[in-house]
C-alpha cells in the first residue's frame, strides 16, 4: 500500500498537531527545496504534510526530522527532556552519549509482539512491532487495534527509542494517539530462538490516577519487510485460540523461563 493511502487515516487532531509543528520548524530553518532534497521527497508530497492533508509514515518522518536537524520527538511535538542542573538534556542526546553502538541484539524489521492482557486472563494483546536501526540504538514502532465500549475499532500506535547495552535491549515508548500511556521494556535474545526477543514490559498509564503495570512479553521475528496493512488487521486483544500457535509456543516458553529463573528477564 502506498504511503499516501496509508497516512490519510490519521485523526484530524494528529494531522493538525503534526503540520503545526512541521510548519514551525520549516519557518525557523527555511529552504523547503533543501529540506525536500535531503529527505528524499518531492515538493508536492511535502506540501501535503505541511497542509495537514497527510501525515508521514514513521520512516518518512525520520527522514524529515534528519533533514531539519531535529529529533523525531521534536518533529512530533513531543520533545522529552531530563532535568539536570542547570540544563535540560534531550533524550536523544542521552542515548547518543551513554548507549553502546548496536551489537546485533535486535534484528531490524518486523515482529509479532504478544503480552498477556490482564492477569489472570486467557486474553492477550497481539501487536505488530517494527525496529528501525540507527547508529546507536534505533526507532521502535508498535501498532495494535483496540475496541471501544461501543464496539468500534480504533488503532493504538506507540513510538519510541531503543538502545543496546550489556546484552540487553531497552525500549522507551509512548502512545502517540491517546497520549496518556508511556512505557518501557527490557528485552534479551533467547538461546536457540534465533532473532526472537523476550523480556518484561512496564507500562505507566496516566488516567484516573497514575497506574503502573508489569508483564512478560515475547517478540517473534517476521521479516525485514512485510505488508503492514493486512498484518495490522490481525492485531488486537485476542483469545489464546485466535493467536497463531507458533507465537503462543514462544510466549509459553518465555513465561516458563521467567518462572524458572526469576529475575532473568526483569529490569
TrEMBL record:
Residues 39-75 form the HTH cro/C1-type domain. Coiled coil: none annotated. One of its GO terms (molecular function) is DNA binding. Pfam families: HTH_3. CDD domains: HTH_XRE (cd00093). SMART domains: HTH_XRE (SM00530). This is Transcriptional regulator. It comes from Tritonibacter mobilis F1926.
Amino acid at each position: 500500500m502506498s504511503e499516501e493511502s496509508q497516512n490519510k487515516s490519521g485523526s484530524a487532531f494528529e494531522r493538525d498537531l503534526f503540520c503545526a509543528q512541521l510548519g514551525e520548524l520549516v519557518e525557523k530553518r527555511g529552504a523547503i527545496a533543501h529540506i525536500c532534497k535531503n529527505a528524499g521527497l518531492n515538493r508536492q508530497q511535502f506540501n501535503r504534510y505541511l497542509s495537514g492533508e497527510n501525515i508521514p509514515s514513521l520512516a518518512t518522518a525520520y527522514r524529515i526530522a534528519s533533514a531539519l536537524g531535529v529529533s523525531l520527538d521534536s518533529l512530533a511535538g513531543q520533545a522529552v527532556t531530563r532535568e539536570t542542573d542547570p540544563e535540560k538534556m534531550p533524550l536523544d542526546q542521552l542515548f547518543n552519549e551513554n548507549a553502546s553502538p548496536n551489537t546485533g541484539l535486535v534484528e531490524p524489521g518486523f515482529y509479532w509482539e504478544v503480552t498477556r492482557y490482564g492477569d489472570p486472563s486467557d486474553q492477550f494483546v497481539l501487536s505488530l512491532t517494527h525496529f528501525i536501526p540507527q547508529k546507536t540504538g534505533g526507532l521502535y514502532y508498535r501498532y495494535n487495534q483496540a475496541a471501544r465500549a461501543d464496539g468500534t475499532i480504533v488503532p493504538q500506535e506507540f513510538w519510541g527509542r531503543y538502545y543496546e547495552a550489556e546484552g540487553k535491549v531497552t525500549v522507551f515508548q509512548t502512545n502517540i494517539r491517546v497520549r496518556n500511556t508511556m512505557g518501557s521494556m527490557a528485552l534479551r535474545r533467547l538461546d536457540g530462538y534465533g532473532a526472537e526477543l523476550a523480556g518484561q514490559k512496564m507500562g505507566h498509564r496516566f488516567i484516573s490516577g497514575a497506574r503502573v503495570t508489569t508483564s512478560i512479553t515475547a517478540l517473534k521475528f517476521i521479516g525485514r519487510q512485510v505488508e503492514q496493512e493486512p498484518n495490522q488487521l490481525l492485531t488486537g486483544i485476542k483469545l489464546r485460540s485466535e493467536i497463531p500457535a507458533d507465537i503462543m509456543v514462544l510466549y509459553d516458553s518465555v513465561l516458563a523461563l521467567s518462572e524458572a529463573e526469576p529475575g532473568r528477564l526483569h529490569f
